[in-house]
Design brief:
flat, Neuraminidase, 40% strand, seven-stranded antiparallel β-sheet, glycoprotein, eleven-stranded mixed beta barrel
Length: 1109
């Protein structure tokens, strides 16, 4: 029997190590390297240097050009000419020289690491390279390598990183003489760091880059390049048939124009990859009928067909692989899909709703007594704000840091994998220093909390994900009773991040028993009883043992979980105590990979038959709850509280002296604030909630809570919710009082009494929507349900009115459209307005007439829009390949865009986008980027950053009268904006770092600002010029006169590279033209001209018989 147990444990260990894939690359599977003798000898690079030009017997073909020698650098890059490499800090992609960069970073090899390279013609190595190429590119079966260049960076350290943070990676270039393929290899657990400390004081950390650059400037980048997600390459998605960690590029003679990217497009690709995260995100189409819904994977398969991933940004056939259709086998590894509106942890955590759009796409808004709650649909489970497929595996990412046995560690990543339908979880942290790695394996709560989230529930019980939706705080204290040592665990789960992954941040501190490296750590099957001590609060107290080597060490575990639950959900299963059975535990630390790994099964059951609930009649007092320990009722203080005498009943619990930053004890509706008087950080309830911070409940309004008890209101009052959603009694018009007692105001004299026939809402106010009130209306004053201010509907069903309030800046960032509040005195700090998973939002503009934001998605090839408040997201134009710049003529109701893939400028009618678009300019365009319009003048303006001839051009809106406005002293004119107040055209140049303006006729050119690091997009708002800056990765602004240049703090939760930017005015500028009235008499598109007249045109797809302009 013991042998069977050991055999099973070994099998589970293997599963734990592989995390669902059986083909992870190991260091031993790299191409042989470091050979100092024999038939083929490696060249060694020392002291962080660069090799001399190394001659090749078979040339490398890169984007059609042959190179007969290479230069290998210790900085993780291969070049073909002698250049001053610098670092990614001053040499960002796109590079100005051809290069192959598996991991371009500020690497130091003076004291650590070895860099080697050689050319080989051994047949077994040629066969191995050919196999990779043929598996990655099936239509290249005729390719046969004649030589391979093998370069390896082994255990290298980045500048400013600890010397135990070491990376190993390899590049193999397979060459036939006429074609070449680059193969990047990243062994599992061997990419520990992705950033280095800047060599310039005060500058941010610098991320490594990975990709290929040709002499033509075209770029192919790897997923995660330029971000911390580069560390996921060893476990990320790879070309079909290849092991994890192997990435292949066709670099020789592909269809270069289609397969590779321009330097500017490469930056888009890098940012798109950043948001893909560890998994390659599958782009789901938008349902036009339900714009906020996400189409299921099965439907996407049916409509789009099966996609075949290639593990890079391009497919071999030359089309960009931005939205592969999910394969059946992949669905087990994909995280839950989210509705675009579920953007923040706060929204994800609150399961109340007014209509289905506030719930997950796979959930419904169910009516309960006193209100409504989100509930997952058939085949899914969660709390309604987050729903996951019961049959699909899930992933969880996060950060881990802490201090254990006096050793600090930071910047470790968490990678969890969950087999949902089996209740099995795998938890992995890396890099964890060897000094604490083995000891960490004794702290099981860092992993068992994930087991509670996904445990298989029985008899209607709810596991952690069903209760919390993945948004909760978890604190645990492990006490080793014999040694007196203890460790405190604080963990915040924030729901889904922008990569559609569950996310968590873990911190632990304390001391644990010493574990000798190599000692086995075993946990027996055991159970933990979880009890709901109050709504949104769960506690547990348990005892168990951990076996270290041959020694059994007892410990106690005290846990507290706080979250936000729907107050209207009266499901009795919520209050039932549940027992988590943990079994088949594996706990292992791998020194070579510096990886901490756990695996376990979890199951939730009710108390056993005949067991009594020992806590049923126990009053533990304030800030305390009852838990069962060894069949006895035990009172314990809530997280953040402590007692001097644990034997008193009720328990006297007072606030612990530790800060909430450490205790992680704040309620889900509270924040951790600094308290100077207390000398520590304390929990404080948010606005609209009351309590001590560790527990918060909605504030009551003056009239009392009448939502559940409408009878407490006076007969001349009604129950109404305020702007915070709090219910209170409010006297009818013509009456005054506190709502519970109302009297005639005395100002109406003969005011007609309200009429309330049987069946009206006066007698049954519950028939009104929660955002409505039963009030007298009409000439006779009959009682009827009416939506409250800010809502619309018939009173029985109300939804929030879309906001049309402007006065802010909107910008695009990764998958998000983000609001930047610019009023420093306002409490509004902005935030994410709309998120579409998988998109890369670039250009953005505003329709100030109908209060819409429009933006381009170059990953999904669409132009989308939403209201100013982020609602009503929908795709309005499809098959728009790469619209980098957008501009709207709000007077004529037209939208213009530049397409850098097709090198043209097009226009469509905002009110009839389905009719199609008209290409107005398609000649002599090289790299069109920004575009701006002047409706009253009937002109358009655009930038073309063609490196050999950069310029700013203008034309009439129909494309006629085209001319160059500026073409001198330009570098990379990326950004462009029209100032309607001064009739100026302003631009920002990423090549010469200038912000300049010129009159619309080309005169009076003047410098506004010098020192713009790498501007991408620009807008004018009031008296300032704003631009997105890739160099600062921020939004910058300067006054129109050139003074007061300053950065702007991005909203909390925004991350990634900033792209387009637009001003959202309070009201439209006063402009007019010949198309302002009746569409200028045109049937389709009306284009105003500089002459004051208009030109009627038809969309390109309209036949001659229909085009009667």
């Amino acid at each position: 029997m013991a042998g069977l147990v050991r055999c099973w444990g070994l099998s589970l260990l293997v599963l734990c190590l592989l995390i669902c894939r059986i083909s992870s690359l190991t260091k031993e599977e790299l191409f042989p390297y470091g050979q100092a003798g024999g038939e083929e000898i490696d060249q060694f690079i020392t002291n962080g240097g660069t090799s001399d030009p190394f001659p090749l017997t078979v040339p490398i073909v890169l984007h059609g050009k042959k190179y007969s020698s290479v230069i290998v650098s210790g900085k993780g890059i291969i070049t073909f000419t002698s250049v001053d490499l610098g670092t990614p800090e001053n040499r960002p992609f796109p590079l100005s020289f051809p290069a192959i960069a598996p991991f371009f970073a500020d690497i130091e090899t003076e004291n650590d690491g070895v860099v080697t390279f050689r050319e080989s013609t051994k047949q077994e190595l040629l066969d191995k390279a050919n196999a990779h190429v043929h598996q990655a590119f099936p239509n290249q079966a005729s390719f046969l390598a004649r030589s391979v260049l093998i370069a390896t960076w082994d255990d290298v350290v980045g500048h400013g990183n600890p010397n135990y943070y070491k990376n190993t990676f390899q590049v193999v270039v397979a060459n036939s003489g006429d074609d070449s393929f680059a193969i990047f290899l990243y062994p599992n657990g061997a990419l520990v760091w992705a950033k280095t400390v800047s060599r310039t004081e005060g500058k941010p950390e610098v991320f490594a880059l990975a990709g290929v650059v040709g002499e033509d400037g075209k770029v192919q980048t790897l997923e995660g390049s330029g971000t911390d997600y580069l560390r996921n390459l060893p476990t990320g998605r790879t070309p079909e048939g290849l092991p994890e960690g192997v990435h292949a590029f066709h670099i020789g003679n592909p269809v270069v124009e289609a397969e590779t990217q321009s330097p500017e497009e490469a930056a888009h690709g890098e940012d798109e990859n950043r948001y893909d995260g560890e998994e390659e995100v599958t782009r789901e189409p938008i349902d036009d009928r339900h714009p906020l819904a996400v189409i299921s994977a099965q439907r996407a398969n049916t409509e789009q067909g099966q996609g075949q991933g290639q593990g890079q940004n391009q497919q071999e056939n030359g089309t960009e692989e931005r939205q592969p259709a999910p394969e059946t086998a992949d669905r087990e590894q994909r995280p839950a899909e989210v509705a675009p509106s579920a953007a923040s942890a706060e929204l994800q955590g609150n399961p109340t709703c007014q209509d289905p759009s506030q719930c997950h796409a796979d959930a419904r808004c169910s009516q309960k007594e006193g209100g409504s709650c989100c509930e997952c649909g058939e085949g899914f489970y969660g709390n309604g704000k987050l729903c996951v497929d019961k049959e699909s595996a899930q992933r969880m990412n996060g950060q881990v840091s802490g201090q254990l046995n006096g050793v600090d560690f930071r910047d470790a990543l968490m990678h969890n994998y969950i087999v949902v339908n089996e209740g099995r979880v795998y938890v992995a942290f890396s890099p964890i220093p060897n000094a604490v790695g083995d000891a960490l394996q004794t702290v099981l709560p860092v992993a068992s909390i994930v087991g509670w989230m996904f445990a298989t529930p029985e008899n209607g019980l709810k596991n952690g994900l069903q209760l919390t939706g993945g948004v909760f705080n978890h604190t645990a204290t492990v006490r080793f009773t014999e040694s007196g040592q203890s460790v405190h665990v604080s963990q915040r789960f924030s729901g889904l991040d922008e990569h559609k992954m569950l996310h968590s941040v873990l911190y632990l501190s304390g001391t644990v028993p010493t574990v000798t490296p190599g000692q086995t750590i075993e946990f027996a099957d055991h159970s933990i009883e979880y009890r709901r001590s109050a709504p949104g609060n769960i506690q547990s107290l348990s005892r168990s043992t951990v076996k270290v080597g041959e020694q059994s060490i007892p410990y106690s575990l005290e846990e507290s979980i706080s979250y936000q639950e729907c107050p209207h959900n009266q499901d009795p299963n919520l209050a039932k105590p549940a027992r988590l059975h943990i079994s088949r535990v594996v706990s292992l630390y791998q020194q070579q990979e510096r990886a901490s790994r756990f695996g376990m099964d979890g199951k939730l059951t009710e108390l056993g038959t005949g067991e009594t609930d020992v806590c049923q009649a126990v009053d533990c007092g304030t800030h305390a709850g009852c838990v069962s320990q060894d069949g006895q009722a035990v009172c314990v203080c809530s997280a953040g509280y402590e007692t001097q005498d644990p034997n008193t009943k009720p328990l006297v619990c007072t606030a612990a002296e530790d800060s909430c930053e450490t205790l992680n004890n704040c309620d889900i509706n509270a924040d951790c604030h600094s308290d100077l008087q207390a000398g520590r950080q304390v929990c404080r309830c948010r606005e609209g909630f009351t309590g001590d911070g560790s527990r918060c409940s909605p504030s009551s309004s003056q009239g009392g809570d009448c939502a559940a008890q409408p009878e407490i209101c006076d007969s001349n009052a009604h129950c109404q919710r305020d702007s915070q959603g709090r219910a209170g009694c409010v006297c009818h018009a013509g009456y005054s009082g506190d709502g519970r007692s109302c009297a005639p105001s005395g100002n109406g004299g003969g005011q007609q009494l309200p009429i309330a026939p049987p069946g009206s809402c006066y007698h049954n106010p519950a028939q009104c929507d929660r955002n409505a009130a039963c009030i007298p209306s009409g000439e006779r004053g009959e009682f009827a349900c009416q939506c409250l201010e800010g809502f619309e509907g018939d009173g029985l069903s109300c939804r929030a009115k879309p906001s049309t309030r402007g006065g802010f800046i909107a910008f695009t960032q990764g998958m998000s459209v983000v609001k930047l509040a610019i009023d420093r005195s306002s409490l509004d700090r902005g935030g994410q307005l709309a998120i579409l998973p998988g998109q890369t939002a670039v250009g953005i503009t505003v329709d100030c007439v109908d209060a819409y934001l429009y933006w381009s998605d170059i990953a999904g090839n669409t132009i989308n829009r939403c209201r100013y408040d982020g609602s009503q997201v929908e795709a309005v134009l499809r098959n728009i390949q790469s619209a980098e710049g957008l501009a709207i003529d709000s007077v004529s109701r037209n939208i213009f865009w530049t397409d850098s893939a097709n090198d043209h400028i097009a226009v469509a009618k905002l009110t009839d986008v389905k009719a199609g678009h008209k290409v107005i300019i398609n000649k002599n365009l090289s790299n069109p980027r920004a575009i701006a319009v002047h409706p009253s003048r009937g002109t358009i303006y655009w930038t073309d950053w063609n490196r050999s001839d950069p310029k700013i051009e203008t034309a009439a809106m129909d494309g006629s009268d085209r001319r160059t406005l500026v073409n001198r002293e330009l570098g990379l004119p990326n950004a462009l904006a029209v100032d309607f107040q001064t009739d100026d055209l302003c631009w920002a140049d990423a090549g010469n770092q200038k912000v300049e303006c010129v009159a619309l006729d080309g005169s009076n050119r003047r410098l506004i600002h010098f020192g713009a690091s790498y501007p991408f997009s620009m807008t004018v708002h009031e008296n300032r010029l704003y631009w997105t800056d890739w160099g600062a990765n921020n939004i910058m602004s300067v006054s129109k006169s050139g003074g007061d240049a300053r950065p702007h703090e991005l909203p909390v939760g925004s991350s990634g590279k900033v792209y387009g930017i637009t001003s959202v005015p309070v009201q439209c500028p006063r402009l007019t033209n010949a198309c302002a009235s009746g569409n200028g008499g045109c049937k389709f598109i009306c284009l105003p001209l500089p002459t004051g007249r208009q030109q009627c045109v038809c969309p390109d797809g309209i036949g001659a018989d229909q085009c009667t302009q």
